[in-house]
Design goal:
Chain lengths: 112, 115
């Protein structure tokens, strides 16, 4: 069965600092996609970044980047220059052939 | 704004009742997905429709059903409601059918409260 694990229920970081959120997954598939979604207090699900498993290069979107280690089945999210607006739940998700599977989330609090 | 719309935003009803949640996908998207998010939990996949036909099923209860209409909007019907059905229900849409490179974009959700 495909599973996604986020082992950090909560994290905190000071504004302007860097924080890394961890995610591991389990699959026997070779071609798949990984995503990080952000859910702020408004509860909207917002796509942060996406990674194709066949690409060795790590995805980057402005202050957000990933460290994708396919052999280790690890997909961490690095947020640089953290901002107060980054305060949210962050969900890692695995897209297999037929559905999107979410982890349980990491609650990130950014302090001034 | 993702381009996916959901109505209503909030719904309060009683146990045993039936409700219908509505979703309009982004322009050009053919797939619609429904998810349930209970309090402080991750999202659970319920069901997917592609161009009017059911494509994938997750942990959807028999009391729940969905459909996608010719104009591609979708409705999720929840019947014989129980207290435990209280949750945030998300709709998402994507261009493609299964797998592929398409990304799912989420609507703002419908918060259902069953009293």
């Amino acid at each position: 069965a495909q599973t996604v694990t986020q082992s950090q229920p909560e994290m905190s970081v000071q504004e302007a600092e860097t924080v890394t959120l961890s995610c591991t997954y389990d699959t026997s598939e070779n071609n798949y996609y990984l995503f990080w979604y952000k859910q702020p207090p408004s509860r909207q699900m917002i796509l942060v970044i996406r990674q194709e498993a066949y690409k060795q290069q790590n995805a980057t979107e402005n202050r957000f980047s990933v460290n994708f280690q396919k052999a280790a089945k690890s997909f961490s999210l690095k947020i640089s220059d953290s901002q107060l607006g980054d305060t949210a739940m962050y969900f890692c998700a695995f897209r297999g052939p037929d559905k999107l599977i979410f982890g349980t989330g990491t609650r990130l609090q950014v302090f001034p | 704004d993702s381009g996916v719309t959901q109505t209503p935003k909030h719904l309060i009803t009683a146990t045993g009742q039936r409700v219908t949640l509505r979703c309009s996908p982004r322009s050009g998207d053919l797939s619609v997905y429904w998810y349930q998010q209970s309090l402080d939990q991750g999202l659970q996949f319920l069901i997917q429709y592609y161009n009017g036909e059911e494509r994938a099923k997750g942990n959807i209860l028999e009391r729940f059903s969905a459909q996608q209409f010719p104009d591609l909007h979708s409705e999720l019907n929840l019947s014989s409601l129980e207290l435990g059905d209280s949750a945030l229900y998300f709709c998402a849409s994507s261009v493609g059918e299964l797998g592929g490179t398409d990304t799912q974009y989420f609507g703002p959700g419908t918060r259902l409260t069953v009293l």
